[in-house]
Write a structure and sequence with these properties.
Strand order of the largest sheet: 8-5-2-11-12
Strand content: 35-45%
Number of domains: 2
Largest sheet: 5 strands, mixed
Number of strands: 12
Structural class: alpha+beta
Radius of gyration: 23 Å
Length: 225
Amino acid sequence: YHGTELLLFGAYRGMPGDDLILEVRGPSTDLLQRRKEQKAGIWVNVETVKWMAVPSFYHLFSTRPLTEIAGSKALGDARIGADTLGLRMAQAAGGTNGQGADDDSVIGAPVAGTAAQTEGLARNMTRMGLWGTKSNAVATQQDMLFRTALSLPSNVPPGAYVIRVLHFRDGVAINESKTDMNVRKAGLSALIYRFAHDYSLFYGLFAIAFAVASGWLAAVAFRRA
């Protein structure tokens, strides 16, 4: 599976000057985030946090830049943007916010992350193509129809997705609609993906056995040559 591209389109009752924002949100998941520093020439984990219920896929598409469509309060009220997701993290077991911890287990109640931690999470998700914001990416026609292209990368998580379409006029959201979308992988890659996640132990043993067998066959072939 190398990813795919979908065309999102629909109809709305608009007027000249209206704007649209499309939000595509994937299933929530927990994510580990580690920060490393170089000490005595060795890179070591100095901070480990676990983010709770993070959108595994979060993309925004708009007719114009978000700051030109509405103010920060209006966007916040409409729950648009990564800063409105209410992201929370659990403290790592090694200390407050995971300082000096290399243990993946967590303790305590979820707390809000710092600005640097939140920016690091957004940067990592964006680099993997799972989060993103595209301005001037929604095309409209006669203030009635709209369309945009949604690219799903090869690492897109399967599951239930929600597409929100928000209609803005004069900086205020006047209408919102939601559509559910199910993403699943098909074919041999999907079979391997499900097997690796549902039977991780057997998948690991099979991978080791396959690597050993491949190495042995290669050695035999070279000896005969």
